[in-house]
Amino acid sequence: MSDALKQTPLHDEHLRLRGKMVSFAGYAMPVQFPSGIQAEHRAVREAAGLFDVSHMGEFHLAGPDALGLVQEVTVNDASTLEVGQAQYSALCQEDGGVLDDLLVYRTGSEEYLLVVNAANRAVDWDQVSTHAGGRELELEDRSDAYGLLALQGPRAEEILARVTDVELAGLGYYRCAHGSIAGVQGLVARTGYTGEDGFELYLPSGETAMVWRTLLEEGAPAGILPAGLGARDTLRLEMGYALYGNDLDREHTALESGLGWIVKLEKGAFVGREALVRQKEAGVKRRLVGIRLADRGFPRPGYPVVVDGTEVGSLTSGTVSPSLGDGIALAYLPVEHAKPDTPVAIRVRDREIPGRVQRPPFYTGGSIRR
């Protein structure tokens, strides 16, 4: 692995726990720990898992024009956010292609936190800072100042409650609050990427390792495991959550990518709006869909999707679901083949594995609170 890879504040912790390190978005990250992806996945579904997501980027906006900037560069309507509330959103190009998906937190009356994908941090910063010109606000990239932990699973609240003064029972889904976490001041958000109840903890980078160790120690009786990118991927795929770089990219618009539910055309001008209005009026020609295999097989990104012997698309993500035992995948298909229950097949070398289009989530037994 290249010496040029960045390290998160938990790098030494991962080595101590014998994590298998890989390159991801320019960072050295654990893909799994000795327990293995299946055990880590199961821990999150049944108890709790702790993920290092410190590679994510964080942009801080504050001032009278902060909301105006957020509204101009994101597709969702941030004017609906209360202080202490978050929303899922996206940044688009002028042609409607997706630059990134992100979370927007309103952390104060005139303060916002944008949490972006690590691989897109520079592009996102360019987009946001370009549109900040002439506005009355402070804009700062605080990515290197933060460590970020994701504590996920049905026992996450029980574990976190032992070490925080935040009233978790009253903290709703996609809500956040400042407070003490193992003696460290940070931001607790009831958000995640797994389909389970859980929290994302924004912490000073220098204190993150101590909080990580404390949570693993406090959570041990509940069955907590440290978890890596492998389990994070299988968990999100079971929910049908899109991953930027696989399922989301600049070549597909927000409407094609299954993000239409967060695109608020009625809110007024934003980057990409005109193109998305035109596409909505003309009709979307392809959509991101879920596919569940009927026979044994391991679907992988790039495998062709076939209907009646004709290739109509290719997989963007795929795995065998640890919870269900079936192959599950995401793919862009022409709208005429994108309806739920449409028979399709995945071509794997010299054979075709039958399946059907299914509206995600594939897994419906999660503990997520809405």
Can you characterise this structure?
This protein is of the alpha+beta class and 370 residues long. The chain has a domain at 285-358: Elongation Factor Tu (Ef-tu), domain 3 (Beta Barrel), CATH 2.40.30.110. 20% of the residues lie in helices and 34% in strands. The chain has eight helices and 20 strands. It has helices at residues 11-16, 37-46, 66-73, 121-132, 156-160, 208-219, 229-239, 273-282; strands at residues 6-7, 20-24, 27-32, 49-52, 57-62, 85-92, 98-108, 111-116, 138-141, 146-152, 176-181, 184-189, 198-204, 225-227, 286-293, 304-307, 310-320, 327-334, 343-348, 351-358. It has a six-stranded mixed beta sheet. It has a six-stranded antiparallel barrel with strand order 15-18-17-16-19-20. A hairpin with a 6-residue loop joins strand 17 and strand 18. Helix 2 (37-46) packs across helix 7 (229-239) and helix 3 packs across helix 4. It is globular. The protein starts with 5 loop residues before the first strand and ends in a 12-residue tail after the last strand. The model has no long low-confidence stretch (mean pLDDT 98).
